[in-house]
Amino acid sequence: MTVKQALNIVKLKKMKAEGVPLSMLTAYDYPSAALAEEAGVDVILVGDSLGNVVLGYNSTLPVTIDDMVYHTRSVARGAEHTFIVADMPFMTYHGSIDVTLGHVRRLIQEGHAHAVKMEGGLEICPAVSAIVSAGVPVLGHIGLTPQSVNTIGGYRVQGKDPEDAVRLMREAKALEQAGAFGIVLELVTEEVAEAISRELSIPTIGIGAGRYCDGQVLVFHDILKYTSSYREKRFVKTYADVGGVIKDAIGQYVQDVKQRAFPEERHVFGADEEVLHTLYGAAGKGAR
């Protein structure tokens, strides 16, 4: 079997130039990463969305750098031949450059990521430049930026008026100039996302940003309905109801245990007569 070759930022930019769409999926642990790699995903994002879908928070804000390092390292073990991007969590890249680079170092050296992702526009460009200069690829992220949800008024579609469209275009160009190898566009109107994608030489990866980005990203748990109570999202296409299957299977297990239908004889290990004699004496097995 041919071993899959991981992409890199040069190949990613070449895919954009050749019009080859990029597939990106989040993953947060070893088994999800291994399955994503086996399925042929181009890029795995270890998103701080793990706060919502794995850790049970109601936003990404409580996610720490320790959380991200731990989960990134798990993903890296499961997807050794896939390009892995790790999110920089809330407030880990808004202080001094030295502190920012320290967090980046952990994601690369301890987490084994190939690149980091950062939310924001003009205000983070100096940090992007410094990180790229240090030798680490950076994926930008504009539009709806969940880490800023409290300042942008909730989970709203971006680029719905001329001023906002101009702002997004300006931010995208600034991130490209700062050295970002690509940009995630989240919850951006399709027309604005298309215009940005045409203007940039680096790939755009959309989530809720329409059909004309250079690639798409979705959350592992969304495409599989891997949750106890799934909330439908307009921009998500679900491909399986894994959550329902898991819940039904666990329910059947509970029922089997209650009814003593599990374990069956085929699930147990028997002892020889010498062991039985030691335990029960001459009565042997029949004493039980």
UniProtKB/TrEMBL annotation:
Task: Enumerate the InterPro entries for this protein.
Answer: Pantoate_hydroxy_MeTrfase, Pyrv/PenolPyrv_kinase-like_dom, Pyrv_kinase-like_dom_sf
Q: What is its EC number?
A: 2.1.2.11
Q: Where does Mg(2+) bind?
A: D48, D87, E119
Q: Name one GO cellular component term.
A: cytoplasm
Gene it is expressed from: panB
Q: How is the cofactor bound?
A: Binds 1 Mg(2+) ion per subunit.
- GO-annotated biological processes: methylation; pantothenate biosynthetic process
MF annotations from Gene Ontology: 3-methyl-2-oxobutanoate hydroxymethyltransferase activity; magnesium ion binding; methyltransferase activity
Give the chief site where it resides.
cytoplasm
**Could you tell me what this protein does?**
Catalyzes the reversible reaction in which hydroxymethyl group from 5,10-methylenetetrahydrofolate is transferred onto alpha-ketoisovalerate to form ketopantoate.
Q: Which CDD domains match?
A: KPHMT-like (cd06557)
Subunit note = Homodecamer; pentamer of dimers.
Q: Which reaction does it catalyse?
A: (6R)-5,10-methylene-5,6,7,8-tetrahydrofolate + 3-methyl-2-oxobutanoate + H2O = 2-dehydropantoate + (6S)-5,6,7,8-tetrahydrofolate
Q: Native species of this protein?
A: Paenibacillus stellifer
Please state which protein family the record places this protein in: Belongs to the PanB family.
Give the protein name, as stated in the record: 3-methyl-2-oxobutanoate hydroxymethyltransferase
Subcellular localization, as worded in the UniProt entry: Cytoplasm
Q: Which cofactor does it need?
A: Mg(2+)
Q: Which residues form a coiled coil?
A: none
Q: Which UniProt keywords apply?
A: Cytoplasm, Magnesium, Metal-binding, Methyltransferase, Pantothenate biosynthesis, Transferase
Q: Which residues bind 3-methyl-2-oxobutanoate?
A: D48, S49, D87, K117
Write down the superkingdom of origin: Bacteria
To which pathway does this protein belong?
Answer: Cofactor biosynthesis; (R)-pantothenate biosynthesis; (R)-pantoate from 3-methyl-2-oxobutanoate: step 1/2
| Active-site residues from the entry | E186
